[in-house]
Amino acid sequence: MGSLRPYLQYARLAFQRRAAYRLANWTGVAVNVFFLLVHAQVLLAFFRAKPGALGWSPQDAVLYFTASEALLMVVGIFPDYRFNLAERIRTGEVVTDLARPVTLFWRDVAERFGTALYYMIARFPPVYLTGAVLYAVTPPLRLEVCLFPVSLALAIGVSAGLWYVVCSSAYFRDTANGELSALVFVNTVFGGVFVPIDFYPSGLQAVANVLPFRATLYTPVALLTGKLSGAALVFGVLHQAVWLGVLSAVALWIESRGLRRLATQGG
Amino acid sequence: MIADAIALWARLAGAQLRSQMQYRWSFAIQNGVLAAVVLADLLPVWILSRFFGSLDGWSFAELALLYGMVGTSWAIVEAALRGFENFSVYLVQGDLDRILLRPRAVILQVAAREFDARKLGRMAQGLLVLVISCLVLGLDARALAWVVLGVAGGMLTFAGIVMAGAAIQFWTLGQAQELQNILTYGGSSALTYPVSIYTTWFRRVLTFAVPLAFVNYFPALAALGRTKQAGWPEFVPWLSPFVCAFVLAIGLLAFTRGLRRYESTGS
Fold it and tell me: How far is it, in rounded angstroms, from Cα A221 to Cα A214?
């Protein structure tokens, strides 16, 4: 991995790349708030038929989507189709990367954290506040919430790992756009983006609990909204840590093989 | 005249299709995934209906009908008029100048410019949901006529919205791209559920300001024979075609006005 400095630079650049488009962030806030309103109202309407299901109050439902829409960009559910490893391989830019003394995987991780920091500052507060004010909900002040930063950091790491592994098919085939949209698909299905995993039928829930995708959005959101405690909390954070380890190992292994196979193009 | 227009659109779209087929594997996955994404849209509806029973008196099959109507019409517009969604890029980078130089209708050229065959998978999936839900609900000929009317109206409405969205770019120079996405992507996901579940102001926006309720909610009420029961006079669904045509007219008008106002970026 070498010195830490180049990676900090990568993180800083990723931060600045987002910060350059200020109006875009505000329209993004509007999009997040819109979906927050839709999802929250839908779940509230369902709850009218069966109040108190699973021990969730209507406020819990609203809080879940408030937190998930606020964190959606922070944990990076939607990949960046313009700036990613696959795109650099396709255009041939990867050649300049290879001339530098950095591991491409750690570079992606650094960029992911830089991006996440930007969204934590610019996106999370307005979306979260809007949801909290509109529905007069307050986050539960519980001791477990202290674990939230740890869980969030793990989530960002897992998300970087998933993106890297998916993008790395470009080492062998030039592009990974198809695989990236596949990732968005499984992320939304098994990551609890539209429906909290708690409401899944048991079979689907069991699958979601094994796969890595709940580590990106569901675990930090459920933790922040006070829906994870005791054994479920321990499982959630361990699940994140284990998948982060596995994905990093796989990513580094693919990188060592992929670089040997890589044939760049472009002039 | 119209046949010429369609032939020209098909030619331009065909050129796009050939360029996308260059990355054959990626193309195949993306189409498969996009078909699956529609299921990902429907999956939360299924999970929640299964858990809670019904939503405000709407069964899962009826919710699928709502989804099928709005999903099909949006997918068709998205595939056919994709260029309007990325219109800001042509404005900022000067592609519009090239389009204006050609002796063919600007609207046609813009429409076909980014024809995305990958959206065909999406369209097929939306249609499939629509057909299955109609079969499950056992709709008769009169009800099916309402469904067809709704889908046709949806195409007009979404076409009007994307054109109006592109027109706004003449003034904002591309910075408001995401706001259009709220109306199209956001609107179509909000309309997966009956408008009646939303709070008053949100419902009014979807009925009167951006009249998406006329795309699927009112025609579906008429198809299911529930207009009265939902508290609307019987004539309201009959307004659908007029309202939808009106939205298209506004979109066309806004776009031609913007075009008249256009002065090149000059580089």
Answer: 10
